[in-house]
Amino acid sequence: MGELNRRNFLKTLGVAGATISGIPANKLLAQSKSDLSEDRMGVLVDTTVCIGCRRCEWACKTAHDIPAGNLEDYSDESVFENMRRPANDAYTVVNRYENPADPRSPLNVKVQCMHCDHPACVSACIVGAFSKEENGAVIWDTDMCIGCRYCMVACPFQVPTFDYDKAIQPNIHKCDFCFERTKEGLLPACVEICPVEAITYGRRRNLIEVAEKRIELYPDRYVNKIYGFTEVGGTSWMYLSSRNFEELDFPKLGDKPAPGVSESIQHGIFAYFVPPIALYALLGGIMWISKNKDNKGEGKE
Amino acid sequence: MEHEFQPEQIKHKYFTPWVIVITLIALAGLAFLAVRYLFGLGAVTNLTQFFPWGIWIGLDVAAGVALAAGGFTTAALGHIWHRDKYEVLVRPALLTALLGYTFVALGVVTDIGRWYYVWHPLIMWNGNSALFEVGICVMVYLSVLYIEFLPIVTERFIGRVNLPGFLSMFNKIIDSLLRLLDRTLNKFMFVFIIAGVVLSCLHQSSLGTLMIIAGEKMHPLWQTPVLPLLFLLSAFSVGFPMVIMESLSASKSFGLKPEKDVLTSLSRFVGPILGIYLAAKIGDMFIRESFVYLTELTLPSIMFTIEIVVGVVIPLRMFLSSSVRQSTTGLYIASMLVIFGVVLNRFNNFVIAYNPPYTETSYFPSIGEISVTLGFIALEILIYRAFVMIFPIISLPVKSALRKTKYAIKGV
Amino acid sequence: MKTYIKISIILFTFLFFSFPFPAIAQDHSQLKFNCSLCHACETPTKSNPCLIVCPREKMMTVYMSPAKSPAVIKMDKLKSVQDLYEPVIFSHRIHAEMSEMSGGCEMCHHYNPPGDVVGCDNCHESGRQRTDISKPDLKGAYHRQCMDCHQEWSNNVACESCHETNESGKSAYTVKDYQQTRVHPEIKVPTKLVYNTTHEKGKLVTFFHNEHTDIYGLDCKSCHQQESCAKCHSTEPEKKVEKVSLEVKHKNCSSCHDTKVKTGCASCHSSKEMAPFNHLARSGFNLKSYHSKLNCTSCHQSKSVFTGLNSSCQSCHSEWNSSNFNHKVTGLILDEMHVEFDCGDCHESEDYSKKPSCEGCHDDMTYPANKPGKLVK
After folding, report:
1. 225-254 in C: which are within 8 Å (CB) of A?
2. Could you tell me where the DSSP H helices lie in B158-297?
3. What is the value of pTM for the model shown?
4. ipTM of model over 0.85
5. How far is A115 from chain C (nearest CA, A)?
6. Which domain holds residue C49?
7. Percent of chain A with pLDDT strictly greater than 70
């Protein structure tokens, strides 16, 4: 069966499932409005350049008032033995992977929030505590959050983390693209400290040009893919690598924005409150008719 | 109809050995609940950065909402379609829904990290969020349920307000206030009854939308864009079995004669609804070709098979058989299987199907989580038992005279 | 009259504008490079030099011997108050000496137009916040130069291996250290290497390193260019190399030797050690007197593979004839009579190694019994 037909059929079913009464199908299929800035910033991570010095981890903690410890301790490479993930006290971590092409230059992969162009967390958050800012950053507002952790369920990259050990005011933690710093005209802390500029900060559209150029110039050095260019509708952080991205633990994701389907259904159900009101009217009608019938029936009995 | 029925307060001893056991379970749950509020979620639950949602969401909230579907399905049948025969079931179902949703709310409050901000969705809106819709609908519906319950309270106390000591001077005022409330409610109750059904349809389906955003993280056996439809259909199909199960349980517990005639005729609806649910579920599976995952022996494939076979196919066959529908035991078992199937479905959707990246470990609920879940169920049973003794909920045959009760049919 | 003025104006203007150009053109005319090495267009001008866009790899026009290069450079172009580390004291000369062994100066100085040696900051901006993000900023450029080798060499990329932290107030190395004591030790060049291979018909390959450098005039770079510093400076034992293709194995040799044909194996592979190169044994052409002093490439001009040449003198010395050839170099001065003849009158075949024939004129004379001149030496 053709993919298109199948999808259409599912959408039709989705319409039926979302509502009892008929609603305009185009409402359901409409994607959320894109108000992304053309000039939004991004970062291009070149895993073949990164040397795994982990200075970005130190700078990140320092910038976010997380106890960072001694700078010298970050030269300890034993941490690479286990894969690490962003955590409450580390919004970015570097993992090391073997490089079969050149065993002496391993690939180092910096992990942090990808800052999606169509973020699942922004769409999912019950109170709208997440927002996609004009400069590309996806940030979280502590004053709004109720701690439901739906963002963690929704995130396709499994990035947000939660203070499970705090009874009062537990926070969601994730990279905020150094929103406070960039607001003041500073660079994100990790970008600033990187000795080799493995992470290039710039306008997302320029970064794509740079990345495409690098792949074109050094076809032996890179696989022909920019991870994050199209994944889940595009992300602000993008990656280049010499190995397939799945081998570097990047999730294999489609090109459609993560919140697409659920937002379509939501908007279908709540299309200007038409479906609920229609259902209300329908039930009211049934109630009125059956009451009259009931009265007549009673007369007969 | 042979007898006229009238809701009455049940006169029975509250504590029996089983009730004491249930009370102990409730107390254990409350103890763990205290630990959660004092030391945070991490102290009680097995939740991790990879598994942010456990059985408190999967069972307490998702399954809780589904099982409270008896309230709106019975209300629709009794009040909107005016099948007076089922009137006797409306009040018990209403009480179950009321308690069910109250404990769903408690479950949510317990599970969210900042329980004191639970009101935030009221003023901070995110229309894109399925959870927001569920949250708002549940809050509104809970209020509607309390309003729908009010006539029972007024009925209980009108003419019987008897405050002790000096407060007795207010007896008259309170009584007249109650009568005014009763009259007003009587006029507008239909608004709330329809609203209740609409709100239920909305959030029962939105509950299904919740996990869609998890995308690839959810096992393909469950992840489908028609999840809202499946959730709504399964909520429809579990409504009546839930009412049947409660009614039979209450009759057994209080030593009453089961309202078999009503239940048998109610059970006729279950088969077709379950059939539609099964058809949608199987159809979806074949369209998405997700049945390929059933060929391998994994936890998801086993759980899915149990959910379908034990939770849908077998009870469907039972409800289609008239001999089963005529038998009290048959009805009870078939209803329990449907309930089991829907509970398992919600558990599967929220726990089993959720397969996050970057972790080898999987989630299994902690003793604390299980205790709190069981404790909530135990509390619900205890309060139900207390309420049917305090308020006129369960209908009993009228012995004295054949007359239409004044308060039996609320609303229109 | 008007035309005359016009012409003179044109001439004047032409002269005026062309005058300053020769100075630059002179600079450039000294260069042995193709214009397209640096310029993208056919006729670059001063206002529009149309330089090739980055990356400008291996675009070098200035070379300097390591001995003449600065011994130590303090890399303080990026110094700022917020620095966590002191500037690096870079031992330039040692690194230059080492680079001689492999990629040469262009390992780091990958772009240098005619004139002085330019620093990295000539192209790489010192601020990370910049509009052109196509090339790394100065900090990134510096570090990338170092890290490639340092990672391979010591696997130590800790900042402290080159920098001193700021608090201590001093750098890891001082200028003095380098200038006094640190020079790269002399590199011992082997004369002969015998490789034990897996080739069944001839396990041994005898490699005469001295022949390749001395006779064939190869410099280090021609073979060692792709080798990393770790080849010499490795702190880790060499990892056992996985199975590689024949092509990769022969990579270094195949630029000159034909390693693709099956029949060619025996030219290097043998069951026993081979003797040094001998032109007579290898080609049948004896290199005597004049030829033995020549560089191989003066005869074997095809750059890649040394194929056999036609042994006739004319194939190389086609311009020689009786009027310009000094017969004395053959060891015989022709007498007055014979010097007038064409070469072919006596040397009948093209092969001048055969004895000449006198039969054309003399019935009773033969060479070498009778000589057409006087022997020298």
Report:
1. 228, 230, 239
2. 171-209, 227-254, 260-267, 270-287
3. 0.79
4. yes
5. 20
6. 2-56
7. 84
